Amino acid sequence: MFSTTDKPLLMIPSVDETDPLDIDDEENDDEGSDFDLPPSWVDLVEITLKEFQTRCPYGKKTKLYKKAKIEKFAEYLLKDGLVSCLASYNDYELKDLIEKREVYKHRIDKLETKVHNMTTGLITELFAPGRLDCLKEHAYKASAPGPESDRTMLFYCSARIDGLVKREESPEEMTESYVDRDDFMYYRQVTFGKRVKKFGPQEANSRPIVKIVERFHRNKSKEANEDVAERVFLVSDERINLTFHLEDNRVTASTREFIRPPHTTEKGGTLTMTPDMTTTFQVDPLIKPHKNLHVYDMLVELVNAEEQSTNQIRTSEEEVKEILQLRIKEEAASQLSVSVYDTERNEKAKLHRQELERKAAEEALKKHELELDYLAPFLAQIGDPPHISRQEAYKLKEECLQDLKHRLIDKANLIQARFEKETQELQRKQSWYQQNQVSMTKEDEEEYLNYCSEAMFRIHILEQRLNRHKELAPQKYVQLEQKLRTDPRLSEYF
């Protein structure tokens, strides 16, 4: 048995149980913390769109850092579109310049960034998509910006038909890289020789091609020993070397060498071939050698491919020259693109808006001039005085209202007369029809029915016009009376 006691147990209040007095105190504290602030004595800050786009006083800000300096410009402040220029130095005095990075915006030539490396003399230009030549990046030396010098060009390959990604050029070589071509070529390297001096314009004297190297991806539709991996045209030695793709479980590739026949480049020249003009190395000795006809067709195809490659190389050289000439023009006269929604800078949009405003003003003026002055004929009767007396004002008002009343009555009488005339004509036609109904032909009956239909239509229209005129006449009278009362020439007397 447990011991019991009659004493009350000590109850410990729970955390959730709170004293209502404490709650009231908290509410009083919250109410006491609320107070009204006086209105601000500072005017509202108003910033125009032009000031907001300026970003800083005069649109230019310069910050100095440790071995660096950055200059920021507002958009459209400079004619060339420069918005940022970061200069890096090799000393704390900011005198030994190492690199300068310029950022542009709104350029029509899509130039975004230009980096000047003062140590190597290299200039790198980065472009946004949208150029006609699909140029993405252009790196060249400041000491030799012209053609046939060291440079690297990157292109937006998806926008080009030939799939060109990269072009590296030097005075002696030019290397091009491709992607996603139908002929599986991904690499072409050209070696140039020294230009032979000739009389005449030097522009037509192109660099002689000594060697062309072309490489191809694997074409799964062909056998490995038939699929060319590398094709070398030794133009100066008049030789063509082929290297095929490796077969499975092979460490050596098959090769074939051709001696190009003479006079193949002359128009109308015939291509002759002898067995000693080709040599081959076949990795698999069990494969039967190709017939002479197949080898001859291969040689003809290679000669045509060499000519085609030569033409493409000359086209690439011309493209480089055109890009460089275009870049010179773009840098000499930089143009910025302006959005059609920017009416302040877009001259075409501004002129169009001004033209619309001018036409609207002309139409409003014309409309105002066309509005008739209802007091003009009555003022002319009294000599159009500069000041109107009270008696003249009352007289003008009565005459104007009487004139409107007479015109409304005349119009109602005119409509009523036309209505009665049409009704009488219809009744006369109906009586004539009843008298001659027996002797009438079918055509006469159709003519009578058509006349009745048209007459009823005219009578109905006249009846509607008359009813509408009766409804609007009192309203027009009241409106004119109100206009006369509010007219500045008569309002002082009413």
From TrEMBL:
GO biological process terms held by the UniProt record: cell motility
Biased composition (Acidic residues): 16-34
Domain of life: Eukaryota
Stored Pfam families: DRC7_C, MORN_DRC7
UniProt keyword annotation of Cell inner membrane present: no
GO cellular component: cytoskeleton; motile cilium
Keywords tagged on the record: Coiled coil, Cytoplasm, Cytoskeleton
Dynein regulatory complex subunit 7 C-terminal domain location: 387-493
Subcellular location: Cytoplasm, Cytoskeleton
Disordered, as annotated region: 15-35
Chief place where the protein resides: cytoplasm
Dynein regulatory complex subunit 7 MORN domain segment(s): 57-339
Coiled-coil intervals, chain numbering: 344-373
Record protein name field: Uncharacterized protein
Species, as recorded: Desmophyllum pertusum
